[in-house]
Amino acid sequence: MAFRRGIFISEEPTPIVPPVRVDAAMPVVYVTAPVHLAENPYGVTNKPELLFTYADAVRKFGFSMRPEIWNNYTAPQMIFSQFALYGVSPLVLVNVLDPREHNEAITNHKLNLEDYSVVLAEEAPEDPGNPLDPDADPVFVPVEGVLIDTITIKDDEGAEYVEGIHYTLSFNRNGHIVVSAIEGITDGISANEQLEFAYTKLAPEKVDIYDVIGGYDVANDRNLGLETVEDIFPDFRMIPGQLLAPGFSSDPVVAAVMETKASNINGHFRCITLCDIPTLVENDHGEMVRHRFTDVPAWKNQNNFTSPRQINCYPMLRLGNQIYYYSTQLAGRIARTDFENRMVPYRSPSNQRLEINGICDANGDEIKLNINQANFLAGQGIVSAINWTQGWVSWGGRTGAFPGTTDPKDVQISIRRMFDWIGNTLVLTHWSRIDSPITRRRIETITDSSNIWFNGLASQEFILGGRVEFMPDDNPRTDVLDGFVRFRVHVSPPPPMEAAEFILQYDPEYLQTLFA
After folding, report:
1. How many CA atoms does the CB half-sphere of 299 hold within 13 Å?
2. Which of 17-31, 150-164, 189-203, 253-267 has the lowest mean pLDDT?
3. Which of 128, 211, 260, 308 is deepest in the core (most CB within 10 A)?
4. Rounded to an integer, what distance in angstroms lies between the CA atom of residue 241 and that of residue 270?
5. Closest among 149, 172, 169 to 64, alpha carbons compared
6. d(CA 126, CA 170)
7. Per residue in 46-58, pLDDT tens?
8. CB 371 within 8 A of CB 290
9. In angstroms, how far is CA 298 from the centroid of its own chain?
10. Is pLDDT above 60 for 448?
11. What is the mean pLDDT of residues 12-18?
12. In which element (H, E) is residue 57 found?
């Protein structure tokens, strides 16, 4: 070592490490998106997108409040609920609709211009309940879901016109394609000319549960569907807090895969899933009928919606003319509740305001649940909604494991989420110590930092108490020699007050006031 003279400064690591912040409510949602309205229709398929603003979500995934869009794609209701109704972010959307695969190609479609422009339209399909008059002129309706870059136009002799030279294409305010002929062009399009169109339009009905479940694409070396949950933390350094698949999570296979993924993300993290129980089921005659609330618990058990990580929702929600899958709004409600409690998930989402004015089935027909019926569902591990003293609120704070399981950490939604949040936080906070030498000071740093964090949570009443211990019995010499150590965590999040009783008693002593 070189000879030294003078005053020198050196630094040592702080013995107390502040916890890494973990967002326990960030939803990762698998949706079908109206990508024909998006900035890049082909750029968001099976690619998780981290969104912080309404504008960013609309630009990347496409959006419309029109019923034709709302009823055929699930991304718009998630975007509107998260950013407009509950005002929370971030949100991760994964679009499982592939415009290259889930589409329908149309050729030789004849349509007349109206003067020099026309909205791309097709004959309206016949309504079986209201047949069209065979002698009446055909009724044309605008085509939904057209991919604007696939449109080609020919004249009646088969000569192809060129976009930008003979015509222009644009979207109108309803998201329909407007074809406008450029006037004054030699050999151009004439007024009222009949044109022959070819185009490709989205077919969201072709998306099935296997597109949602996904897997690994060997040819392109990428994850698909629910497998992309493994990409969230490496891409964004954020841990999923909720997994959703509105419109698909009522399928037992999808729900089972969601639960499996939520139990082990990247081999280290955990979260919850929000599942929708169907409001319409098939009867013995093959007809779709109302799923009565009395039959819902049996359906839940028969289809194995009984995991501690599943929050099961019934029925659907309505706000104005729009119908929402319950899981869509519950994700926003959970995130909003966390935000109102300093981002700590210690409070149950039950008895919290929903942005609705009714509940209904998938057909939009009203469903009525009184407090006794809602309590029946809550006692079976199903979250419903009631119109009570505060207006419409969510009702039910138990996971799908209840009543088959009674362990508080598995049946109380708030406690389950707290355990996941605490575990994920400890993983991230102390990850940097992996491969460091096992020394007494390093062990004390981990335990002291964790205990100071728990003391802070307890002082704010986010937990009733908690501590971390390094015990000899948990750490046999053979494990320590092999580089493996265990810390025992004791923690008690507060259980929600699900019931309270006031005992009224007549007290005759107060009769003395008559003689005061």
Report:
1. 21
2. 17-31
3. 308
4. 8
5. 172
6. 28
7. 999 999 999 999 9
8. no
9. 25
10. yes
11. 55
12. helix 54-61
How far apart CA 422 and CA 439 sit, in angstroms, is 24
Q: The tokens of 437 are what? A: 């030498």
Find out whether 153 and 193 touch, Cβ atoms under 8 Å.
no
Contacts of 368 (CB under 8 A, 6+ apart): 359
Q: Please report which confidence band the pLDDT of residue 150 belongs to, taking 50, 70 and 90 as the band edges.
A: very high
* Residue 195, strand partner residues: 111
For residue 175, give the nearest of 123, 122, 125, 119 by alpha carbon: 119
Q: Which of 248, 204, 203, 202 is nearest to 225 (CA)?
A: 248
How far, in Å, are 109, 138, 177, 195 from residue 155 at the CA level?
A: 11, 22, 19, 5
Please check whether residue 393 is in contact with residue 404, taking contact to mean a CB–CB distance below 8 angstroms: no
φ, ψ (nearest 5 deg) of residue 88: -125, 155
Cβ–Cβ under 8 Å, residues 397 and 414: yes
Residue type, 307: S
Separation CA 374–CA 381 (nearest Å): 11
User: Which one, of 278, 283, 104, 123, lies nearest residue 206 by Cα?
Assistant: 104
pLDDT over 70 for what percent of the chain? Answer: 93
pLDDT in tens, 184-223: 887 888 999 999 999 999 999 999 999 999 999 999 999 9
Q: At what angle do helices 440-459 and 413-430 cross, to 10 degrees?
A: 150
pLDDT exceeds cutoff 90 at 4:
no
Is 43 within 8 Å of 21 (Cβ atoms)? no
Residue 154: Cβ within 10 Å count: 14
What is residue 286's predicted lDDT score, i.e. its pLDDT? 84
Q: What is the pTM of this model?
A: 0.92
* Whether residue 16 has pLDDT greater than 80: no
CA distance 431 to 446: 11
* CA distances in angstroms from 184 to 12, 86, 181, 191, listed in the order given: 79, 52, 9, 11
Is the per-residue pLDDT at 446 higher than 80?
A: yes
Q: For the chain, count helices (H), then strands (E).
A: 13, 25
> Which DSSP category does 82 fall into?
I
Question: Which two tokens mark 40?
Answer: 């890049």
- The span from the CA of 236 to the CA of 13, in Å, is 27
Distance CA 215, CA 345 (A): 31
Quick one: pLDDT band at residue 128, thresholds 50, 70, 90?
low
Q: What angle do CA 395, 400, 405 make, to 5 degrees?
A: 115
Which of 154, 156, 167, 160 lies closest to 117, judged by CA?
167
Rg (CA), the chain: 29
Contact 317, 323 (CB under 8 A): yes
How does the average pLDDT of the chain come out, rounded?
A: 92
